[in-house]
Amino acid sequence: MIEEGTIGVPDWARIIRACLTGSQPRHAEAQWLIPGQRHPVDAAQRRLLPRDPVPAAVLMPLIERGEPTMLFTQRAPQMRHHAGQISFPGGRIESADEGPAAAALREAREEIGLDERFVSVIGYLPDHLVVSGFRVTPVVGLLEPGFSLSLDTQEVQDTFEVPVSYLFDARNHHRTRRRSAFTGEEAEFWDIPFGGRNIWGATAGMLLTLYWLCVAPREHT
Which pLDDT score is estimated for 46? Predict the structure, then answer.
């Protein structure tokens, strides 16, 4: 059973906070995930992965509105990797960063001008391996309304919000097959289309990890 907030809308912030509070970054190789898969990387997959993926972090910003939303970026078309794709703000963890949360908040400030005073980090998802050779720690944060954004147009073309109720509706999760840039072979991916945009790849995979971890078990209780 899903707990409801105001006007029959599930209290996603409360549900996710209850699920992730106290969680810590999980960097152990045995817990690494490939985006869109529910189970850790197996031995056969590991042989295809970079030996030493670069540590990175993204911020998954959950905005505490009457109907909670998630904030996304659309990458600039001139970017070398994943040009034009939908993503979360983030990037590699630099030596000066104190950890994944610090890196994710710094990248959000640099990419979209988000003031970290509006963000409360509530927890972490397991590390995800992405085709560009990064090992990404998703940092889930509650974002207080009232923030303003200033985009670095060299990296970000646009930002937009999607209701969490839409993202967490399994009817909007679509399996598809594409040729993987990672292996060169056809692989299964997840798509979450919304308003003429398509959330897929690592971003959709991280959303589904959050859904499977915090929401799906409660739908059957």
Answer: 73
Query: Quick one: pLDDT band at residue 1, thresholds 50, 70, 90?
Result: very low
Tokens of 194: 């919304």
Please name the residue that has the structure tokens 């927890």.
Answer: 123
Collapsing DSSP to helix, strand or coil, 50 comes out as coil
| CATH class of the domain at 8-216 | alpha beta
Between CA 17 and CA 40 the distance in angstroms is 23
Eight-state DSSP code of residue 10: B
- C-alpha–C-alpha distance, residues 49 and 97, integer Å: 25
Q: Using a cut of 0.85, tell me whether the model's pTM lies above it.
A: yes
CB 163 within 8 A of CB 68: yes
Q: Report how far residue 177's alpha carbon sits from residue 20's, in angstroms, rounded to the nearest whole number.
A: 31
Higher-pLDDT residue of 83, 46: 46
Q: Are 72 and 159 contacting, i.e. CB atoms less than 8 angstroms apart?
A: yes
Beta bridge partners of 198: 193
C-alpha 177/C-alpha 131 separation (Å) is 15
d(CA 68, CA 10): 9
